[in-house]
Design a protein that fits this description.
The complex is a heterodimer. By secondary structure, chain A is an all-alpha fold. Chain A folds into 2 domains: about 60 residues, no CATH class; about 200 residues, MetI-like (MetI-like fold, Orthogonal Bundle), CATH 1.10.3720. Helix content of chain A is about 70%, strand content about 0%. Chain A has 13 helices and no strands. In chain A, helix 1 packs across helix 13. The radius of gyration of chain A is 24 Å and the shape is globular. Chain A starts with 5 loop residues before the first helix and ends with a helix. The model of chain A has no long low-confidence stretch (mean pLDDT about 85). By secondary structure, chain B is an alpha+beta fold. Chain B has 2 domains: about 220 residues, P-loop containing nucleotide triphosphate hydrolases (Rossmann fold); about 100 residues, Beta Barrel (OB fold (Dihydrolipoamide Acetyltransferase, E2P)). Chain B is about 25% helix and about 35% strand. Chain B has 8 helices and 20 strands. In chain B, the strands form 4 sheets. In chain B, strands 6-7-8-3-9-10 form a 6-stranded mixed beta sheet, sandwiched between helices. In chain B, strands 13-12-11-14-20 form a 5-stranded antiparallel beta sheet. In chain B, strands 15-19-16-17-18 form a 5-stranded antiparallel beta sheet, with no helix packed on it. In chain B, helix 2 packs across helix 3, helix 2 packs parallel to helix 4 and helix 3 crosses helix 4. Chain B is elongated, with a radius of gyration of 24 Å. The chains are: A mainly alpha, B alpha+beta. The interface between A and B is medium-sized, with 20 and 25 residues.
Chain lengths: ~280, ~350
């Protein structure tokens, strides 16, 4: 845009500011709520200004948690292990399968690709019952393996890596062949370093995907100690014996928000590096 | 250092397309052989078969004393320079040069020595620690050559290494490749579609057309005695004039009803007559002329002037002195010692 009129600048900023408000306001409300004492919500009016109970509330959340539920730090650890496991697993599996599909000639190669591609269309919900039955049969209930393994294959990531590998010039492979690099060496020395920015991008997307898993952890975990934070929040709201303690629920939400935000902030540098210094 | 022998090699792709139709070639130790031809003539395919990047459908390729048909590309003791250089983008120049040596388990000091030597030869010592993207096209080209040199292979294979450079740089690098090859005396096979590059670089020239060898010979030999109309029109710029004409009575009929009587005539009847643009001169008057050229357009090359036009309905280009006065039609004399004759049907040279 080369427009340089004040009115245009004004509207551009107005739109952006409105967008930011829409995104940030709920988070602000949650944060304010997490600093309130237990009586503030009885009036039925949502407070807009911070109160002085912040440290006390967060201590309660992290240490003792709620009646009949695990402490929130435990949920955060569970979520983190699950999200990290899913992310690392998905990237590892999909980059290897994409490498196989692009660089090796084997019977039914195209079929293999299409089978992977077609599973893009199947959301977790469709196969949740059979998957549960398999997981139960393998004794994976209430375990990290059970949280991670059934969702570890990713057609999307495989597809993205495949598309990226196809943009790597064939001559690079041929040069590597002449330089006495076998397939695994080519993968380790050439393909993997070239995929760095793609891996970083997928890491963010997949970490957030893993962190936000709701239905599957809900199904596969019955033990409170294995609950993830996203499932935990929902259970807090539903506590049967009393009104939900909103200040604690909101505090937990804020805590659940932090790891994905940190991941995005950390990997953002990689994105920008990838955009400004194209390798090819 | 090795001799490379190509024996009746064919390449048939899945689907039945025959890209190389039985090519035989014997490259002496230390010789630079250039494969030249238009796109799709099979020159790159042939080179890639020597490199081991394509399967050989039929025939035999040996490097040194060893038949390499079933030898892996990496074990053939050859190094290749690619058209787009194929440098590893994430590695420094030094790592690019050293990668192949490291993979072959060479000692550190040995690698360092070879990389330093190659860098000195190619004058790339100053940017050994840069990444390829920080280099200009010419510098990348040098690095690509350096990667071949450090290997100290039995043969170099060049796959149109200069096509991605601008014209000036291409001429400069052409000279450098020639000097380098003469200095290292490594057997080389060089593929190009540029006939000028082929002429200037080659010890021997192989002209390929549609997967077949049209002619093999030293550049001047090919230039002076093209074996077919294809070679005649491909080698030399501007291209040789080819016109159908008639031989009878020991004379060649030219336009205007004039005739020339060359030293010897290989045939009689209809032939294709070949005339290099530089073998025609302007005649002093119409009376002395063999042909009258109607000029359509003029190209000034500085050292010479090219007149493009037609004579008797046949297209013709002649090269004249740039100071000659111009008119729409010019009288032309041909050098009767420099005429080429080709068969009308097969296009083969008539001796």
């Amino acid at each position: 845009m080369v427009e340089n009129r004040p009115i245009f600048t004004f509207f551009a900023h107005l739109t952006l500011i409105l967008g930011v408000i829409i995104v940030v306001f709920p988070i602000y409300v949650a944060f304010i709520a997490s600093t309130q004492g237990s009586s503030s919500f009885l009036s039925g009016v949502v407070p807009m200004l911070p109160a002085g109970h912040m440290i006390e509330n967060y201590r309660t959340i992290l240490d003792s948690g709620f009646a009949a539920s695990a402490p929130v730090w435990r949920m955060l650890v569970n979520s983190f292990v699950m999200a990290l496991g899913i992310t690392v697993g998905k990237i590892a599996i999909s980059i290897i399968s994409a490498f196989a599909i692009v660089y090796f000639r084997f019977p039914f190669r195209t079929l293999a690709f299409w089978v992977i591609f077609v599973t893009l269309m199947l959301p977790v919900e469709v196969r949740i019952l059979p998957t549960y039955s398999v997981a139960a049969g393998l004794n994976l209930l209430n375990s990290y393996a059970g949280l991670i393994l059934p969702v570890i294959a990713s057609a999307t990531a495989t597809f993205l890596f495949r598309q990226f590998f196809m943009t790597i010039p064939d001559e690079l492979l041929e040069a590597a062949m002449l330089d006495n690099a076998g397939p695994l060496k080519f993968f380790k020395d050439i393909v993997l370093p070239l995929s760095r920015t793609n891996i970083a991008a997928l890491f963010v997307i997949l970490f957030i995907y893993g962190w936000n898993q709701y239905l599957w952890p809900l199904v596969i975990t019955t033990n409170q100690n294995m609950t993830t934070v996203v499932v935990g929040i929902q259970q807090m709201v539903n506590s049967a014996d009393s009104d939900p303690r909103w200040q604690l629920v909101m505090g937990t939400s804020i805590l659940a928000l932090l790891p994905p935000v940190l991941v995005v902030i950390f990997f953002q540098r990689w994105f920008i590096k990838g955009l400004t210094e194209p390798e090819k | 250092m090795a001799r490379v022998q190509i024996d009746k090699v064919r390449k048939v792709y899945a689907g039945g397309v025959e890209a190389v139709k039985g090519v035989s070639l014997d490259i002496a130790d230390g010789e630079l052989v250039v494969l030249v031809g238009p796109s799709g003539c099979g020159k790159s395919t042939l080179l890639r078969m020597v490199a081991g990047l394509e399967q050989i459908s039929d025939g035999k390729i040996s490097i040194g004393d060893r038949v390499v048909n079933d030898v892996n590309a990496a074990d053939r003791d050859i190094a290749m320079v690619f058209q787009n250089y194929a440098l590893y983008p994430h590695m420094t120049v030094r790592d690019n040069l050293a990668y192949g040596l490291r993979n072959r388990g060479k000692k550190r000091e040995e690698i360092d020595r070879r990389v330093t030597d190659a860098a000195k030869i190619l004058e790339i010592g100053d940017f050994l620690d840069r990444k390829p993207r920080q280099l200009s096209g010419g510098q990348r080209q040098r690095v690509a050559m350096g990667r071949a040199i450090v290997r100290e292979p039995a043969a170099f294979l060049f796959d149109e290494p200069l096509s991605n450079l601008d014209a000036k740089l291409r001429v400069q690098m052409r000279g450098e490749i020639k000097q380098l090859q003469q200095r290292l005396k490594t057997t080389s096979l060089y593929v190009t579609h540029d006939q000028l590059e082929a002429m200037t670089l080659a010890d021997r020239l192989v002209v390929l057309n549609k997967g077949k060898v049209e002619q093999v010979g030293r550049p001047l030999e090919v230039y002076r005695k093209p074996a077919s109309t294809f070679v005649a029109s491909f080698i030399g710029s501007p291209a040789m004039n080819l016109m159908t004409t008639e031989i009878g009575d020991g004379k060649v009929k030219l336009g205007n009803g004039t005739t020339v009587r060359p030293a010897h005539l290989p045939a009689s009847g209809n032939v294709v007559l070949g005339l290099r643009p530089e073998d025609a001169t302007l005649a002093a008057s119409e009376a002395e002329a063999h042909l009258v050229l109607t000029v359509e357009f003029i190209e000034e090359l500085g050292a010479e002037r090219l007149l493009h036009g037609h004579s008797d309905g046949q297209k013709m280009t002649i090269s004249v002195d740039p100071d000659t006065p111009l008119s729409d039609t010019v009288p032309v004399r041909v050098n009767d010692k420099a005429l080429h004759f080709f068969d009308v049907g097969t296009g083969q040279r008539l001796q």
